[in-house]
Model the fold of this input.
Amino acid sequence: MTILDGKKLSHKIRENVKLEVQKLQKNNITPGLAVILVGSDPASAAYVNMKSKACKEAGIYSMVHEMPESISQENILEIIEMMNNNSNIDGILVQLPLPKHVDTTAILEAINPNKDVDGFHPYNVGRVVAGLDGFIPATPYGVMKLLEEYDINPKGKNVCIVGASNIVGKPMATLMLNANATVEICHIFTDDLKKHTLNADIICVGVGIVNLIKDDMVKDDVIIIDIGINRLESGKLTGDVDFNAVSQKCSYITPVPGGVGPMTIAMLLENTVTSAKNRPIVKG
Ligand code: NAD
Done:
């Protein structure tokens, strides 16, 4: 069994991002990322903090707009409009989830698709589904990079995606389909999850339930991508897979932490640099 080491690969990608930033800076461009954080959810604040730190290390300028839970949708839209018009900002990221009174779709659709480094705008979603260039959501993008690093080609493989959210499961399924895998997508209403997972050569699970995938649900030599992040009462992080038992049967597995999580941050930085490289040239 081989551990798919996301920490190691993310380090390599982040070093490369740093070099790309240095090249851009020679042309007087410093990539910029604006992050919008609404409310005081500690997990969201921690993610934003990690992203800002990673930007700083890579030489990317980051600007965090912290807003109270009670902020109106109009005020958030105003900030997005400002960031859309700020030529020093290449990426705009809205930390999800947003408070219930805010229409998440309206917010995501307000972001200029050319600055949508999270890849959640329907424009980018559509382009990626059509197999065209577009911002790819960082988490599934990171998974594909990790597979590539270990020479795992999903072409012709049976891939079972467990979890069908817009930010994890659906784009994961799209990328696997684009890579010519045969894809099944399971979710909360799937009857008999085990029937589907047992048939899979690759399982990508992103649900948020500890030990959802057990060893009797997978076939020998399966490849396991655990996207879930759950915090145990002890404070320890764990994924959605019963790692100790499943790792006895699989050929490859991502650990949590140290698997997909670090890749997500690395791909966000890469998307931001890609956006900076495509900055419109201002004449005058
Ligand atoms: P979500 O709540 O939006 O979606 C969860 C999905 O799981 C839904 O499609 C739901 O139908 C499905 N589901 C729920 N119960 C199920 C069950 N019993 N069987 C099968 N499917 C079930 O969550 P999300 O934002 O997609 O996040 C999912 C997990 O991935 C969370 O643990 C989150 O922390 C993690 N996550 C990790 C990263 C990373 O970088 N590694 C990034 C984003 C999210």
